[in-house]
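Subject: Interface between my chains keeps coming out wrong

I've been trying for a while to get a sensible model of this assembly. When I model each chain on its own everything looks fine, but I need the whole thing in one frame so I can look at the contacts. Pasting all components below, labels as-is. Any help appreciated, I'm running out of ideas.
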Amino acid sequence: MKIATFNVNGITARLPRLLEWLAESAPDVACLQELKTSDETFPLQAIEAAGYGAIWHGQKGFNGVAVLARGAQPVERRRGLPGDPDDTHSRYLEAQVGDVIVGALYLPNGNPQPGPKFDYKLKWMQRLHEHAATLVGLDAPVVLAGDYNVVPTDAVRDIYSPKGWQNDALLQPESREAFARLQALGFTDALATLHGDAAMYTYWDYFRQRWERNAGLRIDHLLLNAPAAARLKAAEVDRFIRGREKPSDHAPVWVELG
DNA sequence: ATGTCTACACACTGTAGA
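Reply #2:
Try treating it as a single job with all components included. I did that and got this:
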């Protein structure tokens, strides 16, 4: 079972790339982020025509997450994280597909920091932590997949160079500690586990020819609870779609569970 | 400081968010 995450950066503008990727990579489950569209304008027909069932949580202009399942309808378990009824951002959607539980998340960027946006990021991470603690011990495989907006370390595996990013919210110690604490609950970082020190970037800024120079960051992650990690066979980045016309600034990442 | 892209609105140019 192939489970993927892909920050599409606008599903309307990116629909041709999304459909190509679904056809060529053929994930069984796809978690999408940054739909940047309201619920009413989600392109369900095109996605169904590609052979996928879908649930989504949209928001006009910003944010938005979806779970797609090939030849199946995802069964929704949760819409939004618990812990703040005043939070209006569409950033978390949880579903069951087959025997696997998938949490699709779009973690707040947090820039500029310090400031209210960074505070919101850290509070959101705390809420994610508390909810993840209720999932980690389930007998079912659990995959928390999405754009975490955290570069885990300064290692070449995670960033081409930390210079120039020292003040960015994605590299702050508080962001990294929260990400590490999440893993300490009992979640495995699939891509890091299978690829060691190799550079495994998932995001490249549009400007300054960052893609052409492979000046990327690893910020899209799939965290696996123990039952899921026991079935982990492969994890890869689908770089091919990032090199095409009008791409997202992210590449999809996926795991294969046996 | 710069740079690029998407979506939105007092909309064909400017602004926010990333």
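Reply #3:
Confirming on my end. The mean pLDDT of chain A is 96.
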